[in-house]
Write a structure and sequence with these properties.
Length: 158
C-alpha cells in the first residue's frame, strides 16, 4: 500500500537508467522495450517501459514501475497516446476522449483495489512516444547514464 506522499517521493527522487532489459520485442503488433532504473544511491529499483503499436501511431505508452524490496510492484505513472477513451470512475466517471493523457498512481485507487495508476489527466505536452518519454524522464527525475547534465550526448531509448 502506497500513500500519495510515498508516490510523490518515489517519482521525485533522483533516478538513473542502468541498462536495457534485453532486446526490443514485438507482442500483439507493438514494439516493446524495457529498461532497468534505480535510485542514484542504488536502494530503490524501477523499470521503465515503452510500447508503440506498429499500425496506429497514436497507440503508444510509456511508464515507470516501482519494484519494492518485498517483491511487489506498482506502476507509478503511465503516459498514453490519444487512440482511446479513458474514464476516471472515482471522479464521477470523468471522460477523457481521444486525447493524450498521463496516468498516476493514487492511494484512492490502490485502496479501491483497482489499478494503482487508474487516475489520468489530459495533457498537450506530447503528441508521440518520443515526446511522452521525454516528459516521463523529466517528470520522474530520471537521467540517462551518459547524460552530462549539459544537454550533451544521451543514450537513445526508442
Amino acid at each position: 500500500m502506497l500513500t500519495d506522499d510515498q508516490v510523490d517521493w518515489l517519482l521525485s527522487h533522483a533516478k538513473i537508467i542502468t541498462g536495457a532489459k534485453g532486446k526490443p520485442r514485438t507482442q500483439r503488433r507493438s514494439e516493446q522495450r524495457g529498461y532497468f532504473v534505480e535510485s542514484v544511491e542504488g536502494n530503490y529499483k524501477f523499470e521503465l517501459y515503452t510500447r508503440q503499436n506498429m499500425i496506429d501511431q497514436d497507440h503508444y505508452s510509456c511508464g515507470l514501475i516501482y519494484h519494492a524490496a518485498d517483491g511487489t510492484s506498482v506502476t507509478l505513472v503511465r503516459y498514453n497516446g490519444s487512440n482511446h477513451e479513458h474514464r476516471n470512475p472515482l471522479e464521477g466517471g470523468q471522460l477523457i476522449q481521444f486525447k493524450c493523457h498521463i496516468h498516476r498512481a493514487t492511494q484512492r485507487y490502490i485502496e479501491m483495489g483497482d489499478k494503482a495508476e487508474k487516475y489520468a489527466e489530459t495533457t498537450d505536452r506530447y503528441t508521440n512516444l518520443d515526446g511522452a518519454l521525454e516528459c516521463l524522464l523529466l517528470d520522474c527525475n530520471i537521467v540517462r547514464p551518459d547524460d552530462d547534465g549539459d544537454n550533451g550526448p544521451q543514450m537513445r531509448l526508442i
